[in-house]
Amino acid sequence: xxxxxxxxxxxxxxxxxxxxxxxxxxxxxASNMSHGMWAHTLTVxxxxxLIDRGWRRSGKYxxxxxxxQTCCPQYTIRLSASNFQPxxxxxxxxxxxxxxxxxxxxxxxxNEGTSGEPMDSQAxxxxxxxxxxxxxxxxxxxxxxxxxxEQEETEKDGESDKQExxxxxxxxxxxxxEHCIQSAEGETHSHSHPKPGRGADVSKPPCRxxxxxxxxxxxxxxxxxxxxxxxxxxxxxxxxxxKAKGNCSKSVEEFISVxxxxxxxxHLEVKLVPVSMEDPEFVSSFDRSAALYAxxxxxxxxxxxxxxxxxxxxRFLCDSPLxxxxxxxxPACGYGSFHQQYWLDGKIIAVxxxxxxxxxxxxxxxxxxxxxxxxxxxxxxxxxxxxxTRELQRKAADLCxxxxxxxxxxxxxxxxxxxxxxxxxxxxxxxxxxxxxKCLPLLERSKYSxxxxxxxxxxxxxxxxxxxxxxLYKRTVMPYCIYKKRxxxxxxxxxxxxxxxxxxxxxxxxxxxxxx
Length: 516
Prior knowledge:
This protein has helices at residues 44-51, 88-103, 161-166, 171-184, 210-230, 252-256, 280-284, 286-300, 310-318, 377-393, 436-445, 480-486, 493-510, and strands spanning 2-3, 11-14, 34-41, 56-58, 61-65, 75-80, 268-274, 325-326, 336-344, 347-356, 360-368, 401-407, 423-426, 433-435, 470-473, 476-479, 512-515. It is α+β, with helices and mostly antiparallel strands. Among the domains are: 70-106 and 252-460, 3-Layer(aba) Sandwich (Aminopeptidase); 480-515, no CATH class. The strands form 3 sheets. An 8-stranded mixed β-sheet has the order 7-9-10-11-12-6-13-14, sandwiched between helices. α5 runs antiparallel to α11 (436-445). The model is unreliable at 1-5, 110-191 and 232-247 (pLDDT under 50).
């Protein structure tokens, strides 16, 4: 590994991004809009700063959605790992896995491990792009199957729909509304004229649809939750939150660190392997890992064999632009790209692809053996990665966040990320972090929203000096002001300015923009 200050530089090509691509979430054609860069090399600090401005990588391709134009806006989401407490549903998964390991049994429910919970913890949908220097291949499209938004409406309000449908109606309107509802339920009524004086009351608001009333109530509930949260003190960092009864909530570590009995039915080992052909463990497990990826993609995402070949696997999940790095005050494993392998009884059953960065563990992708879907590997691996982040924080104090990729409110299948709390969403205009409870009511009203409510606050790393942008031209590093004088051909100032504005002044002065 290269040590800190070893001279590694980030080298990128910028592609713009005005052309739309097929959306992997809503399946619309040419409606997924994003800017893109090909990263030949990328330092962990530069990538940390990029993801804190809404960028994300898929292999060596780094992309940033055009938030106010794309069909399904993708908001960067992060979890405060030190303050995380598992929810009831998370504990059920931890207990289920623990029971399976100890006694070899697990209780199955009808929807367990399928559509009822996220199975692919980081199934993002990168856009396609042609690469001008090193790679001409396209970035693969994910095969996600988002649920219909209407599925989010639960059936628990079924008995109260009549009341919701008639809220805000005058007596005459309510009578006719109830008549319609009862008729729709198959009941027989004789038609009668309304009684005199029972007509619509114009002084009262018009009748509204039950769906609109439920949506308004949901927004009010989210706002109330936000208010309640701000009125409560934050839990102590790294300590369990005690309940009112005096019992302390069990942490993830307490579930996974318990020593298994000698006669345990199964043995689970989690290995952290650097993504490098120079690492013997990575090389020795490569074929089995690639075969597992192919099995997962074909079963879960219905890929053809050629779409999940070893070469595609390598390009998508093994080729990383991140330069490995170690620091005296950093984690023992160093920074860079890793595969967290889950070995059950000597067989690899799941792999979580992660990036370890200066301030976070960033989850890239998860693939697993579909035969073990009953163990809820998507949820279990996410909880293990949260615990791993806290483990790293004990050595590197700044490494305290778990990045879960993108939160996509318009895609119900991707909303599960909001269940990991306390989480923040990145404001797409100011690049500041805002509590997700504050953001959800805004996203209920509009799929694109600015989360920072201070109109005077803007991008703190706004491009200020274009001439200071670093450029790699004819194997020579130079500032843009010099490059502009030397370059022959069409003026590319608009492209360079757009790139620098998207990556920010700090990264623009530190990274190298390749120009041919």
